[in-house]
Fold Bifunctional lysine-specific demethylase and histidyl-hydroxylase.
Amino acid sequence: MACGPSSASACRGIDTSRYPIHDAGSPGYRDLVLDARERLKRDGCCQLSDFVVPEAIAALKAECSAMEATVAGNQAGRKVNCFYTLPAPDLSPRHPVNVEFARRFGVIRDDMIPSDSVLRGIYENDDLKSFIADVLGVPALYRSRDAYQALTINVMVEGESLHWHFDCNSCAITLGIQEPVLGGELEFVPNIGRANFKDIEATIHGAEDRPATREYHTREGQLI
């Protein structure tokens, strides 16, 4: 694993020999950004396999194992729509605003993740933040200041899943920590806007004319 002399922090857990996010002026970095942009434009999502090295994944699994029992099913009983907003009684029961999903999984909150965690080190890596901003084509990217949801770990056991939803920020970054034996598909609809209620309703209800979806399988060390 290689690292530039001015960005030693970029080495912690990230395979910088394959993904030189620490060396923004290099041809390898430029090629990486262009490739990621093309994937994002084409697929609506960018998958970077083996972004995190096996040693870091092993450490992440150990960190999660120490916390997962305390959060198992802690979202059970909560019902939300895909926008995380209140229902609208004046609209049809089939309208996306009024379709609620029962949450069935556990969440390790930001305030539960130790300051010296491998995951927090990756999340707070400025080279990674700059790389993502370059891929998105924006001048800067800012981390959430939400004390509970800025950085979270979803914990799912057999039969649990995350419902259809829109993320509450400009983009969502997901890192696979443990690959499931079965399941673990990330399904999404590319380029569907929050105001496109017709397509959202068709997707939620599984209508024949629903827009096409894409799927990625959750793999260890994969950044999406």
